[in-house]
Amino acid sequence: MSEAARHDFNNLPPGAAGLGHVFARPKLVAVACVVILAALGWVYLAILLAGMNGSLGGSFGGYAAGMVQALCRPLPDGSWTVGSVTIVASMWGAMTLAMMLPSAAPMIMTYAGIADTAAHKGERIVSPFVLAAGYTLVWLSFAVIATLVQIALTRVALLDAGMASASGLFSGAIFIGAGVYQFSELKHACLTRCQHPFPFFFANWATTAPGVFRLGVKQGLYCLGCCWAMMLVMFAVGVMNVLWMAGIGIVMAIEKMLTGRRFTHAVGVVLIVAGAAIVVTAMTSHWPIRSS
Prior knowledge:
Layout: H1 3-10, H2 14-23, H3 26-53, H4 58-72, H5 82-120, H6 128-155, H7 168-181, H8 185-195, H9 197-203, H10 209-237, H11 242-257, H12 262-284
Helix pairs in contact: 3-4, 3-5, 4-5, 5-6, 5-9, 5-11, 6-10, 7-10, 7-12, 8-10, 10-11
């Protein structure tokens, strides 16, 4: 820390100085950012699930149950209210925080490591919160798009009122499409950026909040290009399927921590095989049974 910065800290009240020292440690801030925001997403999803299962009591439980009812049931004529659309969007927003921020931890920690080195040299740095805000904006935008897609799929009866797939062929097609995307060049180009964020930060380093926010947006777009197809699998397995949320989140995190294409291609093969099995099952279930 520079002499001027030390002088400023010494002149601050004890509480403010202590807070300043905390925020001067980018790695600590980065860890807190990922943990807190991801935890908020999981907590919100847990509240929705608890309300759906009727396990919350009292007035708060009644409020949560009302939210879930609005979430699960559009109007009889297939239209949606502003309230129900808002709740669906908030659910998708919570899902993106819960699933994507943990997978972004290596990228955020890489930025924090560079910022930590710069801070020790007395250089100006911007909090990792700003980087995470840019990244989060991209995925919250995806949440809005996913909400519109969910409404459209519900209207054409491909999703039922419980947010589960109403068509085996539709589910299988999503699995196969996500599996095929695992082999695409766009997938690997974006995944490489996610796996190796240091060259990107080194070449585009910024020392202003708007500049760092733009870095977060760019990294968020790379992450979106890498993971959007995997996120759409939630339409096939049930939008509020917590086990699949956790599983897909873990797979995406592993992808970003490894190098090479072997794991990504293996996931693609599993998705394609699973999708083909779902399609075959759906088709055979509709075959007419001939009596002898």
